[in-house]
Amino acid sequence: MPDPVRNVYAALEHIIHPWQPHRVASINNYELKAVKLLGMFVWHKHDDTDELFYVLSGQLRIDVRGSEGEVTVELGPGDVYVVPRGVEHRPRAQELVTALLFEPSGVVNTGDAVGSSLTSAVHELK
């Protein structure tokens, strides 16, 4: 039996709290996650994987720390940005943002900052 069709926008309606990703679909050990973002996230990095952000609505800023200092990447609806593995970053949104994340199964949302109050397991859509 094939997996059911899932609607990303319907999935977002079920998300109550920001920064808590919900799995929309899985493919080849990767997950497509829907998430709402609001406020400032914690600085963190993912040592073993890149992280893809695809903004559906709102304006997302991702602060990135690199060898040349700190820069801010600004994303709007339809924009995609990949944070390379091992790069420290901090997403933030002054107003509600809806987005999709694409990353390997099992990736913790706070990366190496697992003790953060924002650490969240991936939720299953109902």
From TrEMBL:
<dbReference type="Pfam" id="PF07883">
    <property type="entry name" value="Cupin_2"/>
</dbReference>
<protein>
    <recommendedName>
        <fullName>Cupin type-2 domain-containing protein</fullName>
    </recommendedName>
</protein>
<dbReference type="InterPro" id="IPR014710">
    <property type="entry name" value="RmlC-like_jellyroll"/>
</dbReference>
<dbReference type="InterPro" id="IPR011051">
    <property type="entry name" value="RmlC_Cupin_sf"/>
</dbReference>
<dbReference type="InterPro" id="IPR052044">
    <property type="entry name" value="PKS_Associated_Protein"/>
</dbReference>
<dbReference type="InterPro" id="IPR013096">
    <property type="entry name" value="Cupin_2"/>
</dbReference>
<feature type="domain" description="Cupin type-2">
    <location>
        <begin position="41"/>
        <end position="94"/>
    </location>
</feature>
